[in-house]
Each structure stands twice: as C-alpha cells, then as structure tokens.
Write a structure and sequence with these properties.
The two termini are about 35 Å apart. With about 250 residues, this protein is of the alpha/beta class. The radius of gyration is 19 Å and the shape is globular. It folds into 2 domains: about 160 residues, Rossmann fold, CATH 3.40.50; about 80 residues, no CATH class. α3 crosses α6, α3 runs parallel beside α7 and α6 crosses α7.
C-alpha cells in the first residue's frame, strides 16, 4: 500500500486550475520528486498534502486514511512534516530551542505541563536532539539564535526541525533554494542519509542535479497536470519533459 496517495486531486483559485486531476502514489521509503516549470502546481500540491489549502476535488490518503477532515496540526501528529520555500524558523529562539519545540507536541506540553517538560524533560530530549544537531552540522551553534544563523545554516536547521517531529513523510519544498553548489552537495548527502533510514520524502525542487541524484521516482507537472512519471533516467529521456521543462526539443 502506498504511504501517500492522491486521486484526482484538484485545487482551483478562481478560474486558475493550479492542480488539475492529479494522481500520485508515493511508496514507503521512497524519495519521490515533483518537478515542473514555475507555476505548474508543485508547491500547491505540497500545501494540499500538508493541509494549508482545502481540495477543490479529489482525495488524499495517508497510510490508507483520508486526510480530508484533518487540519494541519493533526497531519503533523499523524507523521507528515514539511519545510518551506521561504524559511520559517523561530528567529528569537536558539537552535536547540527550535528543535525542542518541534520535538514536543502541544498535547505533550498540555499533558505534562510546559515548564515540567522544559525543566524535567531536557535530559531525554537531549538524547534525541544531539543527533539532529550533528546531522545538520549545527552542534557548535546550538545556543545561537536562529535569526543569527547564515542562510545555509537556517536551511539546515529547518530540515532538522522537521525531522525533530519524527515524520513518516517529509515534504521538502525547494530545500536547495538559495544554496551554493557546496551546500547543495551537502543537502544531497543528508537526503540520501534520510532515505537510508527509511524516511519517505516528497521533494519539490528546481535543481535538477539534486533531483536526479536522490530520487527513486519523479512526476512532472505542467499547468497543474501530470505530463510524465518514471525513474530519473526515464524522465530525462522523455521528449515531452524536455520540451516543457528541461530545455530540449520534443522528438
């Protein structure tokens, strides 16, 4: 059974069909790429899965369960985490605090008391947060305010914060945006590391070197519709994809 399944998914904004009849199935442990020109519906698809927008039509299921009635925070509790095109960190909290807050759900804080969790639960939290700091290369910045980090460091913290929620499905919305080639290479290694741990990833990205280097399967959108799906090699060879997105001519 697919971990994430979209059937006939559509989202219209007035007369604009941002996503139009999209079918997708993401298998457990898979890195699934979603590519296409600007405005093709990629980020809208991520927002629909995360619950930011309601569906105009169609259905989305996670672990066989419909997501239609679940608000965003309950989707997070169910195991769906995400990053954003535009970084959204808690700027006035430290690196460590950003990870701690993400790790502890509102239900945990209400059940045990926020102060008790903060004072008494730090030892257990530290055991989980330290590997995330190492994973993101931010162990030496743990007490630094998130707003004082460099752009690349903030990107790494956002990924680590998403992982702090212990997701089953990780939605990465253009995680390489604004990164230099060295940072993209480091991101590639982190995504491959997550795949090796069995984390399922839906990746929206324009950096084709990254997409082709980490994905198991790719779907291509154009004007809200899927025009191709296959392995990275199949997508690179598809004439319709080359014409619509990769810059080549259709055969």
């Amino acid at each position: 059974m697919a971990l994430l399944e979209l059937k006939g998914v559509s989202r219209h904004f007035g007369g604009v069909r941002a996503v139009d009849g999209l079918d997708l199935a993401v298998e457990p442990g898979q890195v699934f790429g979603l590519i296409g020109p600007n405005g093709s519906g990629k980020s809208t698809t991520v927002n629909l899965v995360a619950g930011l927008f309601p569906l105009t039509a169609g259905a989305i299921a996670f672990e066989g369960r419909s997501l239609e009635a679940l608000p965003t925070h309950l989707r997070l509790q169910a195991g769906i985490a995400r990053t954003f095109q535009n970084i959204r960190l808690f700027g006035q909290l430290s690196v460590w605090q950003n990870l701690w807050v993400a790790q502890n759900s509102p239900e945990d804080r209400a059940r045990h008391g926020f102060l008790a969790r903060w004072l008494g639960g730090q030892s257990g939290a530290r055991d989980e947060i330290l590997p995330l700091l190492e994973f993101s290369g931010l162990a030496h910045k743990r007490d630094e305010l998130a707003s004082n980090l460099s752009f690349g460091e903030q990107r790494r913290l956002e990924l680590a914060r998403a992982m702090a929620t212990r997701p089953k499905l990780l939605l990465l919305d253009e995680p390489a945006a604004g990164m230099n080639s060295e940072e993209v290479g480091q991101l590639r290694e982190r995504i491959l590391s997550l795949r090796g741990r069995g984390v399922t990833i839906l990746l929206v990205e324009h950096v084709m070197e990254l997409v082709m280097g980490v994905t198991d399967r790719i779907a291509v959108l154009n004007f809200g519709q899927k025009i191709a799906e296959g392995t990275p090699a199949e997508i690179q060879a598809d004439p319709a994809v080359r014409k619509a997105y990769l810059g080549g001519e259709a055969a």
